Amino acid sequence: SVPPDAPSPGPSADRPAGPSIPFRLEANINSLADLDAVDPASIDGIGLVRTEFLFLSAAEALSEERHVESYRRILARVPGRPVRLRLLDLGGDKALPGLVEGGPGSLLGERGIRFLLAHPDLARLQARAILRVAAEGEVGVLLPMVTLPQEVAAVARLFEEEAVALARLGVPVRCPPLGIMVEVPATALTLDLFADAAFFSVGTNDLMQYLSAAARDNPAVAPLNAGSETALFRLLAQISAAARSLGKPVAICGDLAGDPEAVARLVALGFGDFSVAPSRLSALRALACPPVPVEG
Ligand code: PEP
Ligand code: MG
């Protein structure tokens, strides 16, 4: 049931009547085409941009201007609302021919932030593009596949260095808040060690596959993932409690957030921010309060 101090849903002509659970609803964006699939008036922001899917070739991914252009288009779609740009989550199941190949063992290998820290030129290029657009809108940065606090510190240093270099050239920049994906079990169990992260976003797709040791892209073991729901929810309860004691915002941006039944359980665990695929927005909107009004 809705707590007594919950914001009451405002009138909305196109919103179905029914019980309303208070939470923020955001969109996951995988491509610029996804932007068109989203009614900006219906979302509180963009909770996850999978930047690794925005670029169709290595040449595009290696163009700072191309990054800036894409991010500007995304920001322009939801003016005044937060946009979380995730650093390139390459490796694992995500290949970009000419830059990163997938391969056996890659799900446990040099993927996400591990790959970027091993390829600092690419990380710095993306950091520069983000620093530039962060001066123009409400940008947060999500670090994928974080395992240790040192990885967050290394990325923060890299952003600071690039910010100083750009500012010296007279380029307007802003250092955006750095948050982390919670999708490695070691991270989920030690959230208290990540007090330097500005916010958390739980990647239930990866968290689930690493909990059950069943690859997310292998249908033969899919029942093991589905069957490990109890383990996942126990860990999610811990994550919610740990984030609350740190006083940090925590969202869920994995596929679980797009399942209305799961969302009712997640709200009961204290989660209040869900970022979902455009195709899941209407099902979730039917449960949620209206978008938080934009200020200003
Ligand atoms: C996840 O792992 O749940 C997630 C949101 O990231 P991706 O699906 O892109 O790995
Ligand atoms: Mg993931």
Automatic annotation (TrEMBL):
Domain of life: Bacteria
Family recorded in the similarity comment: Belongs to the PEP-utilizing enzyme family.
Protein name, UniProt field: Phosphoenolpyruvate-protein phosphotransferase
Native species: Ancylobacter oerskovii
Entry keywords, A to Z: Kinase, Magnesium, Metal-binding, Transferase
Interval of the full protein contained in this chain: 279 to 574 of 574
Stretches with biased composition (Low complexity): 11-20
Domain PEP-utilising enzyme C-terminal: 24-287
Names of required cofactors: Mg(2+)
